[in-house]
């Protein structure tokens, strides 16, 4: 380049100094540019070569890494598959052993349960039979005691009545002798049956004995007896019998409240011609009869058998005592102690038809109220299958309760 400049300008030396400087500078620049271009080409070639080598090396490394990854994954999968198979085999073996052990334990527990249940059932059956036997024995003893007490009360009543009848007969005989009579009127019969004949029939009775008179006096001390005597004497008036009007007057006096019955007794005594004696005898007979009746009632109230109490409760609840229960069972506490019995009855509903009421009659050996003893309760059961703590149907309000 410098040579060309030199040739074109014919003489480099012939130029002025500034010109030479410019030429020299251009020459240096041109040479540097040529050298840079060469260096840049070399650098670019070197860069491309390095990039090609790096690409080739990366490709090789990537392939190796991918191959290594795939190999590691394959090994891990194989190892996992082996471990999973071993774990599953171990799990199945453990489960089989556990199932076998559970089956054996279950069989042993079931066998033990069945054995214990059989023993408990047998013991319960034996205890129930013993309790049933004891209950029946106690019921029989209570019935026997009640009948013995009832018989004693009846004997006492008969003794008291015999004493009263003897007194009436003796006084009547004395009064008859004092009146000049030779004895009792013809057709008169004394005794216990005559007393009740007079008490029941009143003035309808044809017996004219003193026993009948005492019964008429006692039986006529109530409004029903007064009405009965009025009817009897009205019949006598209608039939024209002697003394019919006087008898009707006496019966009418008895209807008067308070003093009517006393006047009736006195007038009846006057009618027999023995006013004073008859009045005293009637009072004495009434006293003995009342005492004997009170004694019988007291004895019956103090000792009432379970059977009698059950029949009373059944009757008061409107259940026919002749009707058989549709079911019955013994009742026990949660501790298996006897608590009584329970009877179920079906009775027709009011108004007829085929509809029925379910009624329960329950025997309780104890009472929730302190001081109360064995008793019977009866009445319609509550709807909805309501049960008490002993498994008995609950009875509706207004139930009947009878103590033994």
State the gist of this model.
By secondary structure, the protein is α+β, with helices and mostly antiparallel strands. The chain is built from nine helices and five strands.
Largest sheet features: 5 strands, antiparallel
Tell the overall outline: rod-shaped
- Order of strands across the main sheet: 1-2-3-4-5
Strand share of the residues?
A: 5-15%
> What count of helical segments does DSSP give?
9
DSSP E strands, number: 5
Q: Indicate the multimeric state.
A: single chain
Helix content estimate: 55-70%
Rg, rounded, reads: 64 Å
Q: What is the N-to-C succession of helices and strands?
A: HHHHHHHHHEEEEE
Secondary-structure topology with pairs:
Blueprint: H1 2-8, H2 17-178, H3 192-201, H4 210-219, H5 223-239, H6 244-254, H7 260-271, H8 275-302, H9 306-316, E1 327-332, E2 338-348, E3 356-364, E4 375-380, E5 400-403
Antiparallel strand pairs: 1-2, 2-3, 3-4, 4-5
Helix pairs in contact: 2-8, 3-4, 4-8, 5-6, 6-7, 7-8
Q: Which features would summarize this protein structure in a list?
A:
single chain; 404 residues; alpha+beta; five-stranded antiparallel sheet; 9 helices; disordered N terminus
Question: How would you portray this structure in words?
Answer:
Among the domains are: 155-302, no CATH class; 305-321 and 357-366 and 373-404, no CATH class. The chain contains 9 helices and 5 strands. It is rod-shaped. With 404 residues, it is α+β, with helices and mostly antiparallel strands. Residues 1-10, 167-187, 274-282, 285-289 and 295-302 have low confidence and may be disordered. A hairpin with a 7-residue loop joins strand 2 and strand 3 (356-364). It has helices spanning 2-8, 17-178, 192-201, 210-219, 223-239, 244-254, 260-271, 275-302, 306-316, and strands at 327-332, 338-348, 356-364, 375-380, 400-403.
